[in-house]
């Protein structure tokens, strides 16, 4: 068995599982946010259960519309609060941050745990070795009641990346490179394990960027190898292996309108932009904020650009304030908004209009994702995004400040 199958077998209380087996596994954490939780609660109530399977293993995070952007979203928040009070489940409703960042910071799950979440980017938890499964609200309701989920053991594809990354290449470039190579449905219903010297030497925050976008290539399960000794034999048997040289990965961007429409930044250099967003569960962590602050220090964003910065959590924002990053970023002309999903999913706090062109560190650029369906969205690393904000058009990393800095 490989490392994904071992976790499945353990949680199914079996000695062995193989691809295609249908098993019932125990769940260590069930999560939802303010958009998906109301439907899950409604479904939960419809089956007349008077308690969740374990109130310490169910959590809701208000992150998509906080503060509320509409009367309807306020109604949803109140509905979630009422349920949380009644059933005693964990609730994060003070703009603590994006659900996947809060999960990590509050240590709600750990290596080897099974996390089921009503959000497609639940896969972020694969960065620290959790088996993270995104589900719909109806399925989450059943998990909230039973504490188990039925799954089919998937085929597993191993992606091994070895070598030294070039200067100006970040974790975002790694995952965009892979999505561009395999497409948005390249791993549908499969598990994917990332390993290799390059991956294992990344920080947890960088691994979270990669795991976060596993779903953009269709993976059912995204998992980052946790073995520091880099013994790939411990990963176990997989169906396919792809080896990638780190030296072949360039600074890239996902161009309109698919995360798989990948081009080297140098090919789109000069593209005019009028909005820049830094943040989200993909690249809203402190290390991302350090990157943009280094670029923006003593500089201004272009007059033609609206620069929006969304810390992934209150703890990230606190650290930014303590270390002076907020002043640097604000002095550059940026708008720092409260921790949460912000404009990433197109509900509020900086929507795009027809004709707008944005470059962002977020994870999706489908038509209408951040506002009007005719707006154009480019996805790139924090470094490319910050330098482009200064210039007012897309530039390769190293244009504003040398890559050695």
Structural description of this entry:
Its cofactor is [4Fe-4S] cluster. Keywords: 4Fe-4S, Iron, Iron-sulfur, Lyase, Metal-binding. This protein is of the alpha/beta class. The chain contains 14 helices and 18 strands. Helix 6 links the parallel strand 8 (156-162) and strand 9. The chain is globular and about 55 Å long. It starts with a helix and ends in a 14-residue tail after the last helix. The model has no long low-confidence stretch (mean pLDDT 96).
Overall average pLDDT:
96
In DSSP terms (H or I, runs of 4 or more residues), the helix count works out at 14
Strand content: 15-25%
User: Oligomer, anyone?
Assistant: single chain
Q: Structural class, judged by helices and strands?
A: alpha/beta
Uncertain segments of ≥5 residues (pLDDT<50)?
A: none
Determine the N-to-C terminus distance.
Answer: 44 Å
Cα-atom radius of gyration: 21 Å
Characterize the largest beta sheet: strand count, sense, and whether it forms a barrel: 5 strands, parallel
Sequence of strands across the biggest β-sheet: 4-3-2-5-6
How many β strands by DSSP?
Answer: 18
Shape call: globular
Kindly state the percentage of residues in helix: 25-40%
In short:
This protein has 405 residues and is of the alpha/beta class.
């Amino acid at each position: 068995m490989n490392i994904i199958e071992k976790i499945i077998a353990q949680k199914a209380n079996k000695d062995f599982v193989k691809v295609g087996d249908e098993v019932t596994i125990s769940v260590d954490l069930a999560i939802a946010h303010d958009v998906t939780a109301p439907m899950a609660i409604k479904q939960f109530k419809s089956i007349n259960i008077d308690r969740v399977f374990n109130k310490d293993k169910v959590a809701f995070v208000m992150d998509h519309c906080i503060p509320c952007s509409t009367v309807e979203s306020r109604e949803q928040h109140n509905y979630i609060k009422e349920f949380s009070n009644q059933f005693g489940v964990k609730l994060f409703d003070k703009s603590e941050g994006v659900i996947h960042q809060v999960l990590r910071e509050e240590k709600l799950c750990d290596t080897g745990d099974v996390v089921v979440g009503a959000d497609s980017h639940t896969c972020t938890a694969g960065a620290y070795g959790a088996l993270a499964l995104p589900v719909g609200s109806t399925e989450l309701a059943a998990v909230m009641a039973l504490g188990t989920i039925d799954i089919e053991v998937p085929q597993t594809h191993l992606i091994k990346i070895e070598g030294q990354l070039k200067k100006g290449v970040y974790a975002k470039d790694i995952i965009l490179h892979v999505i561009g190579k395999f497409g948005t449905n390249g791993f549908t219903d499969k598990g994917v394990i990332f390993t290799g010297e390059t991956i294992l030497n990344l920080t947890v925050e960088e691994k979270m960027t990669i795991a976060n976008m596993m779903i953009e290539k269709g993976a059912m399960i995204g998992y980052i190898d946790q073995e520091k000794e880099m013994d790939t034999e411990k990963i176990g048997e997989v169906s396919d292996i792809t080896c990638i040289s780190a030296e072949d990965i360039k600074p890239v961007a996902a161009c309109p309108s698919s995360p798989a429409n990948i081009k080297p930044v140098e090919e789109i250099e000069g593209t005019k932009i009028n909005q820049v967003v830094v943040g989200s569960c993909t690249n809203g962590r402190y290390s991302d904020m350090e990157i943009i602050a280094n670029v923006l220090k003593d500089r201004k964003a272009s007059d033609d650009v609206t620069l929006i910065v969304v810390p992934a959590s209150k703890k990230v924002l606190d650290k930014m304030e303590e270390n002076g990053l907020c002043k640097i970023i604000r002095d550059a002309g940026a708008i720092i908004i409260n921790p949460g999903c912000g404009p990433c999913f197109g509900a509020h706090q900086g929507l795009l209009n027809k004709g707008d062109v944005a470059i962002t560190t977020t994870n999706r650029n489908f038509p209408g994702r951040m506002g009007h369906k005719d707006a154009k969205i480019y996805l790139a690393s924090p470094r490319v995004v910050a330098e482009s904000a200064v210039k007012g058009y897309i530039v390769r990393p190293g244009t504003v400040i040398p890559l050695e800095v």
